[in-house]
Amino acid sequence: MIRSDPLSAAVRPYRRRLALFAVLSSLVTGLTAGGFAFAAVTLGFKIAQNGNTRIPLYIAAGVGLTAFFLRLILTFPDEREAARRVDALGLKERTSTMLALRYDYSGLAAMQRQDALDSLAGAEKKRLRGAVSLLSAVLCLLALVLAVGSAFVPAAWFAREPDPMEQVWQDMLDMLRDERQRLETMGEEALAKEMDSLIDALENSDSVLQALGEINRAEEAAKDAARNGEASRGAMNEMLDVLEEAKRMLMEEEEAGEGEEGEGEPGMEMEMLMPGEEGGEGEGLMPGDMPGNMPGDMPGGDGEGRGPGSEGEGADGPVTKTEPVYDPISGSVPYGDVFSAYYREYLKSAENGEIPFEAQSPAKAYFNELNE
Question: Which residues pair with 311 in a beta bridge?
């Protein structure tokens, strides 16, 4: 009786050779997947300006090993596959039949097994080959080239142009955080809490106008804390100096940005005319060139109920009221282009004490409503 072990031993050398080719092809697949993964992650990190070099290596290794083992599991030959490949060498299915009848102990099956074993003894293992396809080799080479190239690509190629406003905003927040730390060290809990609230508000602010309003609110809160005895006047004055510096940084950067937008662009040079006039006295006026810097604050009236473009009765008949730099009838200048200028003038006037206290609340409500 022929046991199954001699049959497996007869096929094992051919199966081992086929397994070696399976490992080789799986290695090519793993290198290809790992190379592409490394190149993609490395370039992604450089685009995002992330200098971490270990994560791409870890990801590439994980992807490569996963692809290697998956391909190996799918292509590793078992006894049936090895027998099929050996029969392709000219054994005419003798090996497959032998394995199929391995538990058949009849005389006919014994003769067939002996014939198959004799044929296997004369088969050349060198003729049993498993080649890597040309496409797989090209893809592997391409992946390795991309991986090496991505490692040497300078990250500066993907660096964005720094936004001056973002840098100013970050510098301002860092300055406020340092002031908050100083106030906490001095034991000024009320001022430190107010500064912390201001920083949170500024981090969520989406406009310079809103940021200036938050800083003004913090200034009033600091003054109230000093009046109520919750903070010392020395600490309050130092905090106010820092807040004034923060406002100066924002306003200067915004003015610089507006100047760059209007410089050298065709059509940006604006002719300011009073409605119905051509080349009259109102031409070329800017905020502050005419009495009143706020909308509706025009000579010859109390401003009540008069917005841009409103009409009233003068000494010689009807007169037309309008903004010095904005004509609401022609619509030649978007209101947003001049609103920030008006608001800055209002803030400066309020700081200098030129606006009465009872008029500050209505003015703030006015600008807040327009800003919405």
Answer: 320
User: How many CB atoms neighbour CB 20 within 10 A?
Assistant: 11
**CA–CA distances in Å: residue 293 to residues 117, 157, 324, 341, 365:** 107, 47, 8, 9, 17
Contacts 24+ apart (CB under 8 A), 115-119: 116/91, 117/6, 117/7, 117/10, 119/91, 119/94, 119/95
Question: Could you tell me the CA-to-CA distances from 7 to 4, 32, 76, 90, 135 in Å, in that order?
Answer: 5, 38, 19, 18, 37
Q: What are the pLDDT digits (tens) for 175-196?
A: 999 999 999 898 889 999 999 9
| C-alpha to C-alpha distance for 281 and 285, rounded to whole angstroms | 9
The model's pLDDT over 239-252, given as tens digits with 9 standing for 90+, comes to 999 999 988 888 87
Euclidean distance between CA atoms 93 and 83, whole angstroms: 8
Q: What is the pLDDT of residues 30-65, one digit of tens each?
A: 999 999 999 999 999 988 888 788 999 999 999 999
The more confident residue out of 308 and 177 is 177
Length of the chain: 372
Tokens of 241: 């100096």
Q: C-alpha 359: how far from its chain's center?
A: 44
Kindly state the average pLDDT of the residues 203-217: 83
**3-state DSSP helix/strand/coil % of the chain, to nearest 5:** 65, 0, 30
The structure tokens listed for 174 are 């860092």
